[in-house]
C-alpha cells in the first residue's frame, strides 16, 4: 500500500508522496494510470518528497506531469510541498531549501499560511530555454504568433492578448513547433493594469490547468520587460489569485496551498 495526500494550489492539483525512504518508483505508464481522473486518483502533477543529495538543501523535490514526463519546476506544487512538510512534521525549519533538477528553491511559509517561493533567476538564453533561435530577442515568431520566451526551470512561451481567445487552437501549434524541442508551456495574458493581469496557461504534458505558478512568473517577467507591468503584480488565474514579484534578478511567487484528502493505493491491484 502506498500512502498519498491530495493537495491543490489554486486548483492546480497534486498527489504528494513521502518517498524519503526511496522505496517508491513508478514507471511512466503507472504515473499515467494514477493521473487518470476516472480510473486512477487524478492529478496535474505527482510530487515526490525525497532525501536531499546536497548539503545545501533540506529535501529533494521531484515532479512528474500527468503524462509521466519528469519536469524541473512547479511553483504551485512547491507551495503544497512546503505545507505538506510542515503538517507532517518532517521539518520545523522555515524557510526550507529544496533541490530540483533546475537548482535550489527557497520556500517560506507565511503567517497567513500562504507560501512564498523564491523561484530563482529566469533565463532568457535560447539554448537554455531551449528555443531554436541563434540569439536572444525581445519576441520570437513561432507558428505565425509573436511570443515572449524564457525559462523558469522549464520553458515558457507567452502571448499578450487584448482578450484571451483561441487558446485551444493556438497552444497546440506552438507546443508542437520544432522551435521548442522539449515542448513548452504556453501562457495567454491579458493586461488589466500595471499591477494586475488575467492569465491562462496550457502546460506541456498536462493541458490547461486552473493555475500554473511558473507560468505566472514567466508571464509577469515578460510583461515587465515589455514595460507593461510594475515589479509586483496580482495574477488572476482560473483557480484563484497569486502574487508575483520580480526585482530584476529573482522572481518570487506567493499563494495558497490546500489539503484535500489522504488516501492509499494498492497499485498492483489498481484499487484505491
Strand content: 35-45%
Derived structural class? alpha+beta
Return Rg in Å: 18 Å
Helix content: 10-25%
Alpha-carbon distance between the two ends: 9 Å
Average of pLDDT: 95
Architecture of the largest domain in CATH?
Answer: Roll
Tell me the CATH superfamily of the largest domain.
Diaminopimelate Epimerase, Chain A, domain 1
Broad CATH class of the largest domain: Alpha Beta
Largest sheet: 18 strands, mixed
Overall geometric form = globular
Low-confidence runs of at least 5 consecutive residues:
none
Would you report the number of β strands? 18
Please trace the helix and strand order, writing H or E for each element.
Answer: EEHEEEHEEEEEEHEEEHEEEE
Supply the number of helical segments: 4
User: What would the CATH topology of the largest domain be?
Assistant: Diaminopimelate Epimerase, Chain A, domain 1
Question: How many domains in all?
Answer: 2
Oligomeric state of this protein: single chain
Q: What report would you give on this structure?
A:
The protein is α+β, with helices and mostly antiparallel strands and 272 residues long. The protein folds into two domains: 123 residues, Diaminopimelate Epimerase, Chain A, domain 1, CATH 3.10.310.10; 115 residues, Diaminopimelate Epimerase, Chain A, domain 1. Helices cover 16% and strands 40% of the residues. The protein is built from four helices and 18 strands. Strand 10 and strand 11 form a beta hairpin.
What would the keywords be for this entry?
Diaminopimelate Epimerase, Chain A, domain 1, 18 strands, globular, 4 helices, alpha+beta, 2 domains, 18-stranded mixed sheet, 272 residues, 40% strand
